[in-house]
């Protein structure tokens, strides 16, 4: 019931651990998205060579979607790094 009050009471070590775990998850997600992007490019090239333009366009649309997801993951990683630096600076000043 009072979990919202206790959220601010966590110690900084656990916060840094949580940020590191989150960063690791997003690094893995970025690798998966990069692999999907390269697969879609290869499939689009194959469909273009075989003359199936509609399927090639669908592959390029999926590739564009994966790239937008990758941009979002990158911005989240940037925020995580910023928060880690803020916590490290706060620990250094204490």
TrEMBL record:
One of its GO terms (cellular component) is ESCRT III complex. InterPro entries: Snf7_fam. One of its GO terms (biological process) is late endosome to vacuole transport via multivesicular body sorting pathway. It comes from the Eukaryota. PANTHER family: CHARGED MULTIVESICULAR BODY PROTEIN (PTHR22761), OS07G0490700 PROTEIN (PTHR22761:SF91). This is Uncharacterized protein.
């Amino acid at each position: 019931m009072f979990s919202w009050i206790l959220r601010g009471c966590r110690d900084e070590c656990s916060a840094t651990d949580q940020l590191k775990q989150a960063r690791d998850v997003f690094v893995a997600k970025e690798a998966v998205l990069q692999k999907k992007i390269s697969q879609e490019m290869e499939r689009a090239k194959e469909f273009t060579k075989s003359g199936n333009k509609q399927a090639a366009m669908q592959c390029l649309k999926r590739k564009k979607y994966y790239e937008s997801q990758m941009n979002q993951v990158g911005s989240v990683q940037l925020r995580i790094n910023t928060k880690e630096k803020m916590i490290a600076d706060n620990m250094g000043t204490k």
